[in-house]
Amino acid sequence: MTADDVRGAARALAEHALELPELARGRTVAAYVSVGSEPGTLALLDALRARGVRVLLPALLPDNDLDWGEYTGPDSLARVEHHGKMALFEPSGARLGPEAVTGADVVLLPGLAVDARGMRLGRGGGSYDRVLARLERAGALPRLVVLLYDTEVVARVPAEAHDRPVHAVVTPSGVRRFPSA
């Protein structure tokens, strides 16, 4: 994809995501800052903040778990190099602890693919598997939404017993919901 294609896809993804009733009602959204070839999320993060939504972003811990901090705009991000892993943009302010995600109304998840069942394929580090398990243990029921390119919605991905389906996928061309989630 060209740089213009990537920017256009990020705008379209944000527009479709902002039409979700879950995001319209949500007071707190746990999200992430896209990196590498992931669909861009900054336009969506800024639009959520403009609506008065509290946006939580992850900070990777040494054991691959996630801590959380608040996104207050682009100046609240720091580029953090993780040894042996990619550099991530993380919140530069106070850490709220791994349990902070349990207060989110919606959790926006990264992924490599999602299938027709709503099963998400992650990068294999287990960070979001831990988040989903933490939500389940806390009895938290946020809406789970994965952000992907259209070509990353596939027929089937491998799934294990601990995997949980997402409620919806947002792509630059629209939203697809999964009733089994």
UniProtKB/TrEMBL annotation:
Domain of life (superkingdom): Bacteria
Regions that span the bilayer: none
Keyword hit for S-adenosyl-L-methionine: no
Cell membrane as UniProt keyword: no
Catalysed reactions, as listed in the record: (6S)-5-formyl-5,6,7,8-tetrahydrofolate + ATP = (6R)-5,10-methenyltetrahydrofolate + ADP + phosphate
Keywords: ATP-binding, Magnesium, Metal-binding, Nucleotide-binding
InterPro entries referenced in this protein's UniProt entry, alphabetically: FTHF_cligase, FTHF_cligase-like_sf, NagB/RpiA_transferase-like
Cofactor field: Mg(2+)
Catalytic activity, EC: 6.3.3.2
Family, as annotated: Belongs to the 5-formyltetrahydrofolate cyclo-ligase family.
Descriptive protein name: 5-formyltetrahydrofolate cyclo-ligase
Organism name: Streptomyces rameus
Taxonomic classification: Bacteria, Bacillati, Actinomycetota, Actinomycetes, Kitasatosporales
